[in-house]
């Protein structure tokens, strides 16, 4: 397929990646398909739930990143894919898949997407959504309790033991690969308008 542009949207957990991706989607509508790295979490369905909740979900080994890379390549070639579906409440992959058709704009969203050079090299524009750690933690607590079936204690425990130290190892050091760093995420209208303008320029150039 001609004129495919792949945009990476990274940033720490609860920094506003999905909000920024949705703003781009609002502009380009059906020309956009969103692939989240989180869809590609490994299922670990051989382990019982009480073991799965203890795993480190902020390490590169928690993902089937090769499948995401293969799926992006297929979409770029004009081939549809069946992407996996992940459940944060079940801590595993569901049995269903979702068909994704090739689109002009593919957004790849995830906190660890710049850590893998093969994945990084597939992207035409790399965005990093920046937010202070305390703001992200507050948002994560609210979201995980409301939407991901967590207790306050479990969110704080996971954040302290894995999310925060892994962020320092696998997210923050890779910010240097971003083309644009967006503070205030989805609220930053000027940055988002500039990004939309750049996407339009690339699409009309090809
Ligand atoms: N700029 C912002 N100010 C305040 N809250 C925000 C902002 N951006 C996102 N949020 C909220 O924070 C939570 C996480 O945002 P989301 O975009 O899903 O982040 P991510 O995809 O990086 O985890 C959501 O509840 C969202 O509504
Ligand atoms: O089963 C799971 C899988 C992942 N997580 C946590 O989710 C965040 C990533 O989601 P964002 O939307 O980017 O915040 C990651 O930090 C994992 O710790 C989980 O809790 N359970």
From TrEMBL:
Provide the residue positions that the database annotates as binding ATP.
11-18
Recorded GO cellular component terms are: cytoplasm
Q: Name one GO molecular function term.
A: ATP binding
Instruction: State the pathway, as annotated in the record.
Output: Pyrimidine metabolism; CTP biosynthesis via salvage pathway; CTP from cytidine: step 1/3; Pyrimidine metabolism; UMP biosynthesis via salvage pathway; UMP from uridine: step 1/1
Q: In what residue span(s) does the Phosphoribulokinase/uridine kinase domain sit?
A: 6-191
Database matches in InterPro entries: P-loop_NTPase (IPR027417), PRK/URK (IPR006083), Uridine_kinase (IPR026008), Uridine_kinase-like (IPR000764)
Source superkingdom: Bacteria
Catalysed reaction(s) here are: cytidine + ATP = CMP + ADP + H(+); uridine + ATP = UMP + ADP + H(+)
State where the protein is found: Cytoplasm
Keyword Signal tagged: no
Question: Family per UniProt?
Answer: Belongs to the uridine kinase family.
Annotated protein name in UniProt: Uridine kinase
Native source species:
Variimorphobacter saccharofermentans
* Lineage of the species this protein comes from: Bacteria, Bacillati, Bacillota, Clostridia, Lachnospirales
